Amino acid sequence: MITVAVLTISDKGSKGEREDTSGPLIAEILKPVGADVRHYEIIPDEKNLIKETLIKYCGKVDLILTTGGTGLAPRDVTPDATLEIIEKEVSGITEAMRYEGFKKTSRSILSRAVAGLKGKTLIINLPGSPKAVKENLEVILDVIPHAIEKIKGDTAECARP
Q1: What is the pLDDT of residue 161?
Q2: Domains in the chain and their CATH numbers?
């Protein structure tokens, strides 16, 4: 079982001015890999609040998925907040998401999403739109269980026969 926190980063969503469809979609997409979403919050695009919320869930869940705030707009600060708290970056995750996304839209290269570890919690930034959330999670979904096993200390060989 993979324990998860989902954080939607949205000024409008946090004020109830926009319905969050990306956060619930993440929970639905994760079901086939045995993930249990234990925490779900919608918070505004405030760097310090994002950092505090990420830190709050680190150590309490295996995986934190954020949605929103990964672009170039002045209020898009999710990756900046994430970079300030992670201890190890896992750039291959976001590189793969951008690479595969580029096959559908050249705009995927504008994503500043990051992924990394704080303690034994993996944090992955996803875009804000439901379509992009689905497309990005499809790229990385099969590696998440393996990543979590390794983070938890699994010492089995990674090579495939």
Answers
A1: 66
A2: 2-151 (3.40.980.10)
pLDDT for the residue numbered 157: 75
Return the axis-axis angle of helices 47-57 and 78-85, rounded to nearest 10°: 50
Give the dihedral of Cα atoms 80, 82, 88, 91; nearest 10 deg.
-70
Cα distance between residue 63 and residue 106, in whole Å: 28
Amino acid at 156: A
Strand partners, 76: none
Q: Which residue has the tokens 């919690």?
A: 121
pLDDT of the residue at 160: 65
Q: What is the pLDDT of residue 158?
A: 72
Residue that is written with structure tokens 């950092």 in the block? 51
Burial label for 124, CB within 10 Å (0-12, 13-18, 19+), is buried
What's residue 154's pLDDT?
82
Question: Is residue 97 a contact partner of residue 64, using CB atoms and an 8 Å limit?
Answer: no
- Look up residue 154 and give its two tokens: 């699994």
| 36: Cα within 13 Å, side-chain hemisphere | 7
* β-strand partners of 67: 8, 126
User: In the chain, which residues have pLDDT < 70?
Assistant: 159-161
